[in-house]
Structures
1.
Amino acid sequence: MSNNDLAQRSRSAVWHPCTQMKTLETLPPLAIRQAEGVWLHDYDGHRYLDATSAWWVNLFGHRNPRINAALKAQLDTLEHVMLAGCTHEPVVALSEKLARLTGLGHAFYGSDGASATEIALKMSFHFWRNRGLSGKNRFVSLQHGYHGETVGALAVTDIPIFRDTYAPLLRASAQVPSPDWRLAESGESPQDYALRCAQALDDYLAAHHAEIAAVILEPLVQGAAGMAMYHADYLLLARQSCNRYQVHLIADEIAVGFGRTGTMFACEQAGITPDFICLSKGLTGGYLPLSAVLTTNAVYECFYDDATARGFLHSHSYTGNALACRAALATLEIFEQDNVLVANRAKQVRMNAALQPLRELPIAHPRNTGMIWAFDVPDAPADFPRHFYQQALAHGLLLRPLGNTVYFMPPYVISDAEIDWLAERIILVMKKVTT
Ligand SMILES: *Cc1c(COP(=O)(O)O)cnc(C)c1O
């Protein structure tokens, strides 16, 4: 088998996500035969550094020995059982652990990020309904926010290329200004700009809180917006506004959770606890689809009743899948055993040092939060993302820009030598595509 054979079969049999299939005529999918650590290997003997962690999900490398061993043992014990009326050790242990880590409890499971968004939105609305406030049935999200692409999640997502086509299917939600510091006026600090945006949110809630169930946001980094980063004070003020106006705060930590921003969860950097936290992506270390929504005792207790319909009846066949929960437990054990957050701080410093020469190139807004890096390429031509992607592949990197934003968030197991190599290659590719 060659890359080309498999790519051709894939083009006719598989409908690829986030892809205009016609583009695969000239840019066939990369056929990956196997992977190990930060490296992906194709059928033609080439290897590529997985610089965006398999779409932001991988934390501790491909074929991680500890996660592999845990999954193999779980396979010989229990693969899956329905979670309505049954329970099992992996889902209980994982729920206990997530409760300790987040300060929230009552873990409710889905299989993907978009489902976690749906669950949080439904729970928030249902909470207010159980309280006799069924008029609180609308949501507020941030401009350029991303919360998934199922019909409910898309209604709070503000990425035109994903949303506009389906607008007639979606229930309108309100978008308030994004605290993305790239949008600050000249002379305005990221913090001042965050405060100005927080005031806009407060003004909106002051006028509309009677119909608003929740504010949903991506804490600290808006991923799909192009790694838009913002000051933590926004979260603190958003929390205060939500308290003031009796509105829930839903923290979508699907991308930023599990150490990506430097703390286990991004909300920790603002010292706040949301009413709901949505988790997925890194939750299983990039092994199996799983998402979780955790919430407060106050929310949970409002559903606890003799009346069936006051309960949260959302049902999903693979809820709390035992294999996925085991992969998540093995992932969290690595955090406990290896002091990962501390080790990542040294990697962050090293990467920033290695990226210094980038500043001599025609880039804008170089930025970094924890283990996420990004910069923009001003006046990039329309074919920039494709051109960059192809040059990156030719230089041994799997790295797809988002519009004119180049971003990377490698697995945490990246070594110092690999950090230096990755930075060097990105600079080399930038030189190729901008000259
Ligand atoms: C990826 C992502 C989602 C959606 O998760 P899926 O598993 O792709 O449905 C939701 N919110 C954020 C912030 C994400 O990054």
Note: The pocket of pyridoxal-5'-phosphate is lined by residues 112-114, 117, 146-148, 218, 223, 252, 254-255, 280-281 (CB under 6 Å).
2.
Amino acid sequence: MVSSVGTYVDKFERMLEQYTGARHAVAVVNGTAGLHIALKLAGVMPGDEVLVPALTFVASANAVTYCGASPHFVDSEEATLGIDPDKLREYLKNTTEQRSGACFNKKTGKVIRVILPMHTFGHPVRLEELLKVARDFYINLVEDAAESIGSLYHDKHTGTFGLLGVLSFNGNKTITTGGGGAILTNNRELAQKAKHLTTTAKIPHAWDYRHDEIGYNYRLPNLNAALGCAQLEHLPGFLESKRRLYHLYQAAFQGFIGGDLFSEPAGCQSNFWLQTLILNNEHKKELEPILAKVHEEKFLARPAWTPLNQLAPFQHFPSMDLQTTENLAQRILNLPSSTCLGPKD
Ligand SMILES: *Cc1c(COP(=O)(O)O)cnc(C)c1O
């Protein structure tokens, strides 16, 4: 069985549960599809708003629009490169009201249903503070953990703190299934619904084709799941290599005055998916020339994503002041991060 059904999907899901500590894992065709379904299951309905960092990959915001909802962009912080919980709390205090167990945006009148923090380049956000904000303002929390397999916050795997969490196994991520993803949750009912919705909402039956709602063909093919099982066995080794590379860069940039190598936030264990140099404010004009030079030397290096609020399809969506995001986006340089790199490179 190469597709649709087969034993590797189940095996991969059980292995993911064991590795992450999530009670349930549902494998899906890619991380974006996982986000779509996770947001839907967290209650996101057409017309709602979802708080999304502007400093993230476009998939986070795309998935929100697939639910008919609006991304509402929030600022990140220097300490984690993820959502700033203190700034978010102040913002929500001033711009929302809580009624009948929901959070209403006073300006748009819409319900803010979910906060979608993302663990940038594998570095965990301040989950404890964000979970408190979510609770205090009656908002659900879903983690975009697409970049953070192997990253721990206070010794617990990222993606297992929110109501749901989503991993990606795209080709550029720490482990890959070619393309793939998984929805994590500790809630059995949500896990069953995730499985149902991602497999065309078919009622299990030996021969009957009956579907009890509009579902999606978001299942991970068996072939890709087999690759996932093998990749998970290598994950501890990959994480070691990534950490070793971080220490190599740390030694190489000792005494460098142009910026700082980004280290894992306090109390966290990062997977160091992408190694990150953050230029000082005085040196941010040098980002473009550095990128040009590095590419000329045939090394892969990249800047951060263009903040999503600046992209044409997202310019008209609500947003808080994004000062830190806009500044960070001009200073972030991701260095070559392959697990194959060593001292000779
Ligand atoms: C990779 C990634 C995704 C999407 O994952 P795909 O598997 O490529 O669909 C979502 N969010 C973030 C932050 C990512 O880096």
Note: Residues 30-32, 56-57, 59-60, 118, 144, 146-147, 168, 170, 181 surround pyridoxal-5'-phosphate (CB under 6 Å).
3.
Amino acid sequence: MAQLTIDIKKLKHNIQFLVQHCNNFGLKITGILKGSGLNPIIIHEMISNGIDNVGFSNLPVNNTYEKVFPQKPVFISLPSIHNLSNIIQYFGTSFNSEISVIKKINEVLIEEDRSHNIILMVDTGDLREGVLPENVVDIVKQIHEIKNLRLDFSGIGANLGCCAGMIPNEQNINILQELAIQIETQLSLPVKTISIGGSVMLDWLETSRLPDKINQIRLGEAIFLGNIPTIDKKHKDLHDDVLIFRSDVLETSEKRIDQPKNIGKNAFGYKPEFLHTGVRKRAIMNFGICDTYPEGLQPVGDGLEIVCVNSNYTIIDFTNSREDLKPGDFVEFKMNYMSMHQSFISPFTSIIYKQKSDE
Ligand SMILES: *Cc1c(COP(=O)(O)O)cnc(C)c1O
């Protein structure tokens, strides 16, 4: 039995703190949902506690997003040219970097008589999505030269800390400010939204001066995990246990572990490594990679260590724990970014909402 528990009170705290904190810098928050997708409870907490809008990385499968929102959410992935009609239907804004796709969006908007905003992504050094800074003004010009322009150009955005591990610095942050000024002066076009992200920005904000035109921050991980990624630091004012993965013990045993001489590969094709030898207490947990990303879990209790991961089992060594585990006992884990997404996505992991922290 694999469970992902969401502590609503702690979630609320993280949201309220970040809204207040970011508002002090003149930033509105777009709350980013990836693995969690269209989760009405999380979305409700975000919107009712001051998050401006929510952004999704994927198209909905079964639900229409329209039912849940007062305003259309943001599509934060680059739109696929094959899905433009759906993207425009569900999302009010999308992040773009290809002029051919932007032109196609405009065509679909005309055909379907709809409206849609686009943010042009700029690669400020993380080497993921976005046009290079030196091409931005020209692309914005090309966008505005599209015949029968139907889409709205709402601004520019950039992402850090995702691919090249680029952390924010004065230089890469200022690129956006300078580009916005160039667009406004050279093309006489307003740049309403200047969007930065993700959670890696939070640490930088503490010590640096944010250029005044930047007005939106996209945050996911910090809200759920209380963590500042890329530099791998817990945020001092945020809870890191909003999300807890929980599962039960199926078997416990004391097993003798010898360092084997000729070992074959394990279930995933790797040669196993044995960190401990001798007689060890081991518990087989009722989850594996079908339920979450077990390597990213951190047992909450002392002296517990994940030693083996399979599709449906995860084995923990509890030799050094003061707790004695038996079948049926529950073990709790904090989670990292990958474990969070995989738990939300897994059809085998149930989501449990904990309404009060002290229960
Ligand atoms: C995932 C993502 C974010 C959020 O990043 P976190 O590190 O989870 O805060 C923001 N913007 C874009 C474009 C993303 O893909």
Note: Residues 170-187 form the longest helix (18 residues).
